[in-house]
Amino acid sequence: MVGGRGWSLRAPARRARDHGGAAKRRGVWSASAGAATALLLVFAVSLAGCPTAIPEFAPSDIEADVKLPQEDGSLRFAVMGDTGTGDSAQYRVAGLMAIYHRAFPFELVLMLGDNLYGGEAAGDYERKFEVPYKPLLDAGVKFYASLGNHDDRPQRLYEHFNMGGELYYSFSPAEDVRFFALYSDYLDPEQLRWLEKELAESTERWKICFFHHPLYSSGGRHGPSLELRDVLEPLFVAHGVDAVFSGHEHFYERLLPQNGIVYFISGAGGKLRAGDVRASQHTAAKYDDGRSFMILELAGDDLHFQVISGAGSTVDLGVIGNRDKITQEPR
Amino acid sequence: MKSIGSSSSPDRPSFAAAGRPPCIVAGAAAAAIVMRWLLPAALIVALIITAALWMAAPESPAGGPIGAREPASPYPAAPGAPSPDAPAGASPQMRDLEKQRQEAAQVLQPPRQADAQAIEAFQLALADSIKARRQDAQRGDLLDPPLVAYITDITRALLESEKGARILETLRENNPADDPEAGPAMPELAVNAVYPEDIALSMVPPSLLALYPPPPEGIEYRFVGCRLILMDRDARLILDYTEGCVW
């Protein structure tokens, strides 16, 4: 990597002959720009190695209480939905996520849609995403978005949402797991064909889907999307999907395994519909008293999850076995 | 996969801590070393990595392989349900729309990984381009009478089927006419009008999308009340709408 002698700050010789003075100026300019770039790179690297900064809007009286095993080599991630309000409630939850990231350094966040409510001008991206999650972005956390009914489709082009320009996509951040992000607002035949092909070709042990509209829900305001369930659930079952995360409902709910699949709703990262869960025969756990987000750890055959309320308390906790049912009930 | 972030300490430092974190001090020292010895090599490596990432961007822009998508269905495609009134193919106006949008997209080149300013600029430029190319467009150009009749027949038939209740529920989900949470008002229906950002988009039932003629790439069907609209998904422009209900 040491190659100082081989590096020339001068412009190429042919150009120097043709335009000597201009070439020298370009050389100096190139050197300056290069040095500035290098300094920025080094500074960015040093910051990335720093603990997550805790923003001013973080609740000052809360310490992280991580109950997940934190095994070596595990994949750690967070889940949040319906976040993009730009108001103080979203900022508080975002601050809490930064606090938990210090104790549980998750490397990615799944976004379950309604990422930006209302306007979507450049300033909205800043106010509703970049500012509240700046500590996580600065720490190198990658966000993977799915889109909800309040989201404009050009969000798929946004660099921090890592959608690769697609409304639906899959990615594999570790050897044993593949995530599938769907655009549930507009499930056309092309998307369904793509999903079936992707699921069929996936060889990963863990297959996890995330999208906005829940297939199962005990919400009084919306409830389950039965139309989507009709077309998606058979694919999930046939191809061994293990867990599904959705938003849309502004609360947290964990459903009892349905045909071997565990469904989560985590749609209270910014919005809240208090008291909206009408606990049903499918409900395994719920929290609709306040906002919430999830932290998860995938270690071998186990997917551990912990749900954190906006007040910092743990409101659900458990572990999913690979294509198995919940083995530990919430505390 | 290696975790990002270096500390698992439960201690939470003050946001306005007086001293600089050791890692920043270390970073400054590293910067001096790099300026003297590692700068040339680092820049060359950065250029190589940038070039490699650029070439690989369509496959793996997001830290893992993005699943390959099948090419869009060729338009026009035969509707999935047999119907004596099914239109034989796309109207000339619909084919023109596809061509116009392709031309606009070729000129503007939508970015695949952009910042918010670039996205906003692209969206506005695309809307301007489409509006300029379709300044003489009128209601009914795209959703012409044969197509509307076909869609209406399909929609009403499905609503009368055993799945009708589920489909109706989906049609009303976030529909500005039925869902007070969809937004503060109904969008104005006009050709080349912008669908307001603060009004949610109605969900479109998959069972209908399976039977409707597939629109050109980048164009979507949506509902405002019981009226069908055709809109550009990136420019958020209403391209056409039905005069009456389709269900």
Question: How would you sum up this structure, described in words?
Answer:
- The complex is a heterodimer of chains A (331) and B (247).
- By secondary structure, chain A is α/β, with parallel strands linked by helices.
- Chain A folds into two domains: 4-47; 59-321, Metallo-dependent phosphatases (Purple Acid Phosphatase, chain A, domain 2), CATH 3.60.21.
- Helix content of chain A is 27%, strand content 22%.
- Chain A has helices at residues 13-18, 20-48, 88-103, 122-130, 134-138, 189-201, 226-238, and strands spanning 75-80, 108-111, 142-145, 169-174, 177-181, 206-210, 243-246, 252-255, 262-266, 283-287, 292-299, 302-309, 314-321.
- In chain A, the strands form two sheets. In chain A, strands 4-5-6-7-9-8-10 form a seven-stranded mixed beta sheet, covered by helices on one side. A six-stranded mixed beta sheet of chain A has the order 3-2-1-11-12-13, with no helix packed on it.
- In chain A, helix 6 (189-201) runs parallel beside helix 7.
- Chain A starts with 12 loop residues before the first helix and ends in a 10-residue tail after the last strand.
- Chain B is mainly α.
- Chain B has a domain at 92-241.
- Chain B is 40% helix and 7% strand.
- Chain B has helices at residues 22-56, 92-108, 116-133, 145-159, 164-172, 206-209; strands at residues 219-224, 227-232, 237-241.
- A three-stranded antiparallel beta sheet of chain B has the order 1-2-3, with no helix packed on it.
- In chain B, a hairpin with a 4-residue loop joins strand 2 and strand 3 (237-241).
- In chain B, helix 2 packs antiparallel against helix 3 (116-133).
- Chain B is globular, with a radius of gyration of 25 Å.
- At the A-B interface, helix 2, helix 3, helix 4, strand 4 and helix 6 of A face helix 1, helix 3, helix 5 and helix 6 of B.
